[in-house]
Structure formats: structure tokens, C-alpha cells
Design goal:
The protein has 165 residues and is α+β, with helices and mostly antiparallel strands. It contains 5 helices and 6 strands.
């Protein structure tokens, strides 16, 4: 029979402040969602297309340019956790780029974007379901316009890969 030596100070502190922790988590999630919603509108304003799509799932968010009645997985898309703490902690928007994995030509074209001038925020991805990552710094004084411009530029490149430009 195993022994139980009592709860740790950390567990007691968490239990004592659970209501505060829960409330702060809700505020964090609401503010991140609100930020991304404003960012999406700024991206939409910079794009010269009505085909921009924004899909919010429970844990992830997807951005792509494509036809309304088609799934995002048919397109080269941006995906990321719906509530990423890096925006607050490091002022970094970390987005993953994914081409349809069965389309090797589009996968290759995404990887070629890493060398494209003007897309220096793109890096090789270490994420298994991404072909490249966009690491976009968000300055305190410019949390919307510059990041939106980078995302819009990237989406236009991805749309061209998909034959949508």
C-alpha cells in the first residue's frame, strides 16, 4: 500500500485560488479571441478578394483563400492554436502553413517561399503537420497593421500556390 504524505503547497495554493485562476483564464481567452477577430478584419481589409476564409474550431483557427463551399484542407492554409499565449508573453504571432499533404507540388512550393524576398518571417517548421511557420513579431505600438500586412501578403502567396490569383 502506498503512502500519501499530504498535498503540496503548490496544489493548496491552486485550490485556494481556483476561482481567480478560472476567471483569469476566461479573460485571457476572450482577449486573445478579440485580438484575432480584429486582426482578421485588418487582414480582410488588406486583401483584394472576397475569398478570404476564417474558420474557428475549438482548439485551432484556420485562414485561407478559397471558395466558400470547399473545405480548408483542399487549400494551402494557415493554421494555429486558437488561443496562443505567445501573443501576450512574447508579442509573437506563430502561424503554421500547411499545403494538402498529398499534393507534393504545393508542398514544394510552400517550402520555396522560405527563400522569397519579403517573406523573411517564414521559417522551416518543426511542427509535424506544417510545411513552414510564420513568426510575426507584434510590436506593442503596432499589434494590428504590420502583422495584418504580413498575413495578407502570405495569404496572397498561398492563394497563388493554389491557383487562386
Amino acid at each position: 500500500m502506498s503512502e500519501f504524505n499530504g498535498f503540496s503547497d503548490a496544489a493548496k495554493l491552486y485550490a485556494k485560488n481556483l476561482a481567480i485562476v478560472t476567471a483569469m483564464k476566461e479573460v485571457f481567452e476572450q482577449e486573445i479571441t478579440r485580438y484575432l477577430d480584429v486582426l482578421v478584419e485588418a487582414v480582410r481589409d488588406q486583401l483584394d478578394t472576397s475569398y478570404f476564409r476564417d474558420e474557428v474550431k475549438t482548439s485551432y483557427r484556420y485562414w485561407w483563400i478559397g471558395k466558400e463551399d470547399e473545405s480548408s484542407d483542399k487549400y494551402t492554409r494557415i493554421w494555429f492554436p486558437a488561443r496562443m499565449p505567445e501573443i501576450l508573453t512574447s508579442r509573437v504571432l506563430r502561424l503554421h502553413i500547411q499545403a494538402p499533404p498529398t499534393n507534393t507540388e504545393r508542398v514544394t512550393m510552400v517550402k520555396q517561399l522560405l527563400a522569397r524576398q519579403g517573406l523573411d518571417f517564414l521559417k522551416s517548421s518543426k511542427t509535424p503537420y506544417a510545411h513552414a511557420d510564420a513568426i510575426i513579431k507584434c510590436e506593442e505600438a503596432d499589434m494590428i497593421e504590420s502583422p495584418a500586412a504580413n498575413v495578407a501578403t502570405l495569404l496572397q502567396e498561398l492563394a497563388c500556390i493554389d491557383g487562386m490569383c
